[in-house]
Every structure is written in C-alpha cells, then in structure tokens.
Amino acid sequence: MSSTSTVVVAQPSAEAQQNIACQRAKVRGFVIKLIVVWLGIFVTLGVVFNLLRFDVNFMFDRLDFIIEGIEYTLIVSAAGITVAIILALIGALGRLSRNPIANAVATFYVSFIRGTPLLVQVYVWYLGLPQIGQQLEAIGLAGAQKLLTLPAIPAGVLALGVCYGAYMTETFRAGIQSIRKGQTEAAYSVGMTPSQTMRRIILPQALRVVIPPIGNDFVAMIKDSSLVSVMGVWELTYRATKMGRRYFRSLETLTVAAIVYWVMCIVLQALQARLEAHMGRGERK
User: Fold this and answer.
1) What is the pTM of this model?
2) What is the CA radius of gyration of the chain?
3) In the chain, what is the greatest distance between 2 CA atoms, to the nearest angstrom?
4) Which of 24, 49, 239, 274 is the most buried (most CB within 10 A)?
5) What is the total count of domains within the chain?
C-alpha cells in the first residue's frame, strides 16, 4: 500500500497582496524623492561653484597630482589601525584584569590618550621624542636621540595607532563582556585554561561584535590621517595644500581632496557592509 502526501502552499490573500504592492510603491516613491533631492543638492553646489568662480579645468589638471597621495594615506591608515587593534586588545584585557597594576596602566592609557588632542600627540611623537633622546644622551645614554628621532610616517602611524587604540579599547572591552558568562563556565568545565578560553571561545565571538565599530574607526582614521600632513608626509591633504598655495587656488585643490576622501570612505563603508554581512551569516541561519 502506498501513501501520498500533498503539500499545500498558502497563497496570500488579495488584501495582503494589495498591502505588499502599496509598500513597494511607497519604497519606490521614497527612492525617487531621495534621488531628486540629491540631484537638487548637486545642482545647488554647481551654482555655488560657478558663483565662486571655481576653476574646474585647474581642478582636473591637478587631480592626478593630488590622487597620488592616496598611497601614503592608505599606508598610514592601514598601519595605524593595525597598531590600534593590537593595543586595544591588550588594553581591553588590562581593563578586565583583576591585577591592579595591569588595570591601572590600561585605565591611565585610555583616560590620558582620550583626554588629549590627536594633533598634540602627533607633535609629541615627531618633535617631543627627539628632545627626550637629547636629555637621555645628556645623562650618559649614547645614541638615544638618534633612536628616538622618528621619520614622519612611523611617527604618524604611532600617533594614530596609539590614539585610536585608546578609543577601541572600550570597544573590545564591551565586545568581550557581551559574551555570556555561561560560555566561560562551559569552557572551564571541559578543562580549558583561562587563556585557552579567551583565545578559542571568547575572542572569536567578540570579534563579530566589534567588527562594525572597528570599520567605523578605520573610516575615521582615513580622514584623521590628514593630520600627518603637518610633518610633511606627501598624502592627500599635503599635496592639495601645497598645490593650492602655489597657484593661490586652495579652495579648488581642497575641494578635490575632500571629494577623494569622500569617495574613499564610501568604498570602505561598502566593504564594511559586506564584511558585516559575511560575519553575520551564521546568525541569520
């Protein structure tokens, strides 16, 4: 005897179909209005540029020179975010530690760095360290000044990395604390040590939590990397200001630099969204 089964697929009612159609129409209408507003903004900016007598030909002629600074901008930002992630992880573990020395050092680092301007920190790394080396040589430590006199790019990387590491320390700390305590207890119950638990259980789960804010910090660092221009690094801002001063067209060159930064941030935000979707695919399943 054979038995057959019939799968019945429920069809949406006419009212539900009408509601879905209405929602889609509203979404299309919103998108159309959004596009119209953006077009209006660009038209307005075009009028403003015309009133301010922007030399568009000059902007296009100098575009290649300014864009060449993207390489240094990305190098400084990528190296800076790497240093920041390492320091943030160490700082977060220190903030969560029950060791009073580790906790106090990590807390002081976060408080002091977050409480001082990034530009001041850039100058300290570039101009302050050589003075410290000079004083160390005066008390008999030979070669200290040469050792502490950093080139502009390493000084900029350290300034950005140390500064953003302090902010990201709290991000990592919150990510680690977001993992339920039962995960740790389960790891201990199967014989894992605290370091194994942190490395194999806690950090992989916390990483998924901290990815979005890390992406936001990297986008912010791309823009803050412009501060290394004060040390003479030939990145976007330095090239734009140098060319603008030479021809007294700073508004045009700085506008080009701003647009390039904007496009870079849009691309990075799109990559961040794809990474977040990839990291969160397990949650959706």
Assistant:
1) 0.82
2) 27
3) 101
4) 239
5) 1
Any domain includes 137: yes
55 belongs to a structural domain: no
Place of tokens 């600074």: 69
Q: With H, G, I as helix, E, B as strand and everything else as coil, classify residue 191.
A: coil
For 229-251, give one letter per residue: b (16+ CB within 10 A) or e.
Answer: bebebbbbbbbbbbbbeeeebee
- Domain membership of residue 216 as a residue range: 71-234
Report the 10 Å Cβ neighbour count for 105. 16
Helix (H) or strand (E) holding 181: helix 181-189
Q: What does the pLDDT look like over 204-240, one tens digit per residue?
A: 888 888 888 898 999 999 999 999 999 989 999 999 9
The set of residues, in sequence order, having a beta carbon less than 8 Å from that of 281 and lying 6+ positions away, is none
> Alpha helix (H) ranges present in the chain?
14-51, 56-61, 63-67, 70-96, 100-114, 118-123, 129-138, 144-148, 152-177, 181-189, 194-197, 203-224, 236-247, 250-279, 281-284
Q: Is residue 164 part of a domain?
A: yes
* Residue 259 located in a structural domain: no
